[in-house]
Amino acid sequence: MAPYIFRRILTALLLLVVMSFVTFMLMRLTPGNFLDTLRLDPQISKDTLAYYGKLYQLDKPAWQQYLYWLAGLARGELGYSFYYNVPVVKILASRLGNTFILSLAAFLLTWAVAIPLGIWAALHRGGLRDRMIQFTAYAVLSLPGFFVAMVLLWGASVTGWLPLGGMESPGSADLPWFARAGDMLRHLVIPVTALSLGSIALLQKIMRGNMLEVLGRQYIFAARARGLPENRVIYGHALRNAINPMITLLGYEFSALLSGAALMEIVTSWPGLGSLMLTAVRSKDIYLVMASMMMGGVLFVAGNLLADIALAKADPRIRIR
Amino acid sequence: MFKSTTGPALLCSFILLFLSFSAAAAQAPRYGGTLVLAVTSDPKSFNPILAKETSTTAMTGHMFEGLTTMDPFTLKVIPNLAESWGADKDGLVWTFHLRHGLHWSDGEPFTAGDVAFTFNDLIFNDDVPNSARDIFTIEGKPVRVEVVDDTTVRFILPGRFAPFLRSLGQEILPRHVLAQAVHDKKFAFTWGIDARPADIIGTGPYMLVDYQPGRRVVFRANPYYWKTAPGGGRLPYIAKIEYTIVPGMDVELLKFLEGSIDAYTMRGMDYPLLKPREAAKGFTVYDLGPDLGTSFITFNQNPGQDPVSGRPYVLPYKRAWFTDIRFRRAVAHAVDKKRIIEIVKNGLGYPQISPESPAAGFFYCGDVMTYTYDLDAARALLGEMGFADKDGDGILEDGAGRKLEFNMYTNADNTERADIAAIIRSDLERAGMKVNLQLVEFNTLVAKLTSTCDWDAVVLGLTGGVDPHFGQNVWRSSGQLHMWDPRQKTPATAWEKRVDDIFTAAVQEFDEDKRKVLYDEYQKIVAEELPVIYTALGARLTAVRDRFGNLKPSPFGGVFHNLEEIYIK
Questions:
Q1: A76-98 pLDDT, tens per residue?
Q2: Any chain B CB within 8 A of the CB of A29?
Q3: What is the interface pTM, i.e. ipTM, of the complex?
Q4: What is the value of pTM for the model shown?
């Protein structure tokens, strides 16, 4: 196992360097740079612009800049944000928590609903209730998440039942912690619903399929023939085997935890990494873009690796060398 | 009988009592409460010297003040931290007398040393990049500041500089807090968005208490604020300001309708939605007059060529059209400003005729050459240049048979500007031109204007100010933003030379009336020569919830310019 993990980490590092290089060059290939907004301000002289250009090393060729950045990364420095004039780590840290809250809530809701729903649908296979669930699932799967969010936001603006995006109500900072938590929960409803609906529909289908497959196996037949109680047959034998493939999925979902919600954050004005990254790309704040790209990349690679390891641990048939 | 008389009498006395209470409430402003506003982007810093854009200055504006300020109605310079001043006869040495007994928000006294420190050690510190330095660098040399005594400070100018008093709205920063950071060469990273709110010390009516990125910025009243109410009571009245950070104007609008924020700066397109709801939702729409910015189309007259490829920036025959005043006047006649206002600004706008906005007040000159919407006049001018539609396809050809066709760029992210460009295109096509409108990224457009210079026509807008001097980067022939032919070594035309001279003369003229004569002349020249052809200015509309007292909206300062005097009813 250890050599395998070591090899995987080496490949991952290489992958990350390639990814950062491509991102950096793409950012530099697009026209303009961070100073363009300042260039159109009649009050700013060309000396000041040249000074800024030097300060941010925008006068150097792209490959040199990239090497500077890479060298900084090796020392553990992610650079300064042009836009905010503070180390990018500080900006990312403040947003990371927000994204994590949103993604985790959506993640928990998805799994808590999809797994039981899938099992339940499998047990009632072919019945009216199963068919209704499957029909709804298809309908939900055909709707893009951001569209669901927009419809929900529209509903909220008409009825006034839920807040219109954001993470908290004005003035909530002065409330006691439980009222603050309640306020945040209300703000979570729309983005979490929009994020989870599609995943629930998909996951429950997979779970249902797995369960049906296992239920058709001989050993289930044998267990029933031996007169085991139905509950033990289903939850003791069938479920344990049916849930196995879901562990892989869990790992992949984990890796998407920080990057998957970007679009939803922008639509529902959740102050997370996604919206930060959008402004950073637009304003050509290159080190901020690089840092958030790298973070997403590291999480993705790590998530995949963890998923593979978890699968090897859970399923004795799989051996990693 | 007995009952029937006392009943109404009692009722009357109750009503009287009630009326007198509400009258008293209207007279005595109340302390406390929270003003809730929205901003569409995070502040980038809390350091006013390093501030580069409005989402930052909107925040620092609550916390810091300058020696002078501008009267929001007359736009004249009025005392602020300084109570009086005088200059020597050449206008090169200025002495300012500061108000007595002023304090910073941490209780330390405010002195002349802070003023000298702000200029000598912050603005003119080589380690600190800032744009204030551009303003106070006169004829290439810095302004120097000397402390005379605790409340007197002397400014020594290297040359005459008429906008000096107005420029002293420059925020003053505390020496006792920042001297160490300057000594350690860390000022460029001081008071950034990662600063502890309590460390940010100013003299303004409010101080920062909380900033959560992407969520909120919260200010609390500064207990040491120096301004007092007419009766001598302390100011400001409103105890807290909370900014909610929203991702865009649409969300802000919805939040305003929902009732969770107190004011909303409207776009023209919001008017039909908001105006009918005023009474029902309890807010008022204030029309503050035209915008300070500009909106125009300009043609590339650059005679230069690309240093690498050797190709001319503009094809020579097109440049011959664009440099012909008859062509630009034809365009001015062909652009229907009324239609732009009707369609883009929802009827709430003003045709722009001069490079200065009417919102600039004193220096605006409305008596310039104007061009009515008149397609016949446009065609006649083009005909005079030798243009005619020889093949009958609706597009004019010049004497050599080349089609009157050019590329027009604008930035795609500004939807209003893109709409204006589309209208201009259809107007020009009616006059017989073929316009290829291209919407590009903002950064691409800036690169075209300032470095690659490969464009025919551009539709753009620039920010404006009160003093025309600060537009010199646009109007001087050597300017970076002299878009149609930037960075000229010597003025290419007689009128550009005259405008250069006007800007040189006006900056040395202290008599405001004489300055106005000079700046009027420049506005007239621009309207005649049309290096840029102006379109329309939007109206500045703000919707404010009806719960504030002492609200005195001004065209220049907006709705909350006197925030310290405003109270919540």
A1: 888 888 888 788 888 888 888 88
A2: no
A3: 0.76
A4: 0.82
